[in-house]
Amino acid sequence: MRHPVVMGNWKLNGSKEMVSGLIKGLDAALNGVEGVDVAIAPPVMFLDLAQQLLSKADSKIILGAQNVDLHNSGAFTGDISPEMLKEFGASHIIIGHSERREYHHESDAFVAEKFAFLKENGLTPVLCIGESEAQNEAGETVAVCARQLDAVINTQGVEALNGAIIAYEPIWAIGTGKAATADDAQRIHAAIRAHIAAKSEDVAKNVVIQYGGSVKPENAAAYFAQPDIDGALVGGAALDAESFAAIAKAAAEAKK
Ligand code: PGA
Question: What span, in angstroms and rounded, lies between the C-alpha atoms of 188 and 122?
């Protein structure tokens, strides 16, 4: 049985005050909620504060981060290593987000290297994949997702996906309010799972595939009602404790 995972990607948002308020509000709102793993990825600058607050509250919220680099130490100005993320309690690390692929020109191969390095360091990769609007309109969605996944599968073997999380995020749905319909998302999730199943049915059956792109409390339940949607990667709505908790609760309820 796959366990649902709802993760908040805070992107470049936050201040000490905001992080404190959001974590406290979220922890309170999630009190008693079982059956879903809830993770947050604040900007790395706030991991220390987040870790302290979570541990003080004895919170079950999992700490994550939005990026990682390819070395654990050395002359790599500006980089953040897996060891550093681990030291601050971050376990679930987003890689391959479309914003990094676009603004930082991260290639499939580079993202796959990050995937391998996270695994090597005992961290959980949250691998984002997804198509642009033009690719969607050209009917290339499944092919694009397969190509992005194959960068990992062909270099590390399909078993590398064991314990990792895949986040299917159609780029045109991110931050636009133009979410994919639950039926369309399910169709793509099933195709992604089938692509993995062609290599290993066991890995396909167990890997968590989140949907991401304008997930809100209002549409979350419809996604989670789909058999191949195992949670969500949430941007905008994760910045509000009540909204994010409502999405997590919808996942817990749907996947009981
Ligand atoms: P959004 O972002 O929920 O604001 O669309 C999702 C994401 O980029 O992970």
Answer: 29
Question: Residue 24 to residues 11, 40, 163, 242: CA-CA distances in angstroms?
Answer: 19, 13, 28, 11
Question: What is the sign, positive or negative, of the torsion defined by CA atoms of 225, 228, 234, 236?
Answer: negative
Total count of residues recorded for the chain: 256
Which of 233, 240, 243, 244 is the pocket-test mutation for ligand 1 (most atoms within 8 Å of CB)? 233
User: How confident is the model over 70-114, as pLDDT tens digits?
Assistant: 999 999 999 999 999 999 999 999 999 999 999 999 999 999 999
CATH assignment at residue 112: 3.20.20.70
Number of domains in the chain: 1
Do the annotations mark residue 163 as ligand-binding? no
The protein residue whose alpha carbon is closest to atom 3 in ligand 1 is 235
- 9 annotated ligand binder: yes
Residue ranges making up the domain that contains 173: 5-254
pTM over 0.90: yes
Angle at 249 between CA 244 and CA 253, to 5 degrees: 155
The mean pLDDT of the chain is 97
Ligand 1 contact, 233 CB (< 6 A): yes
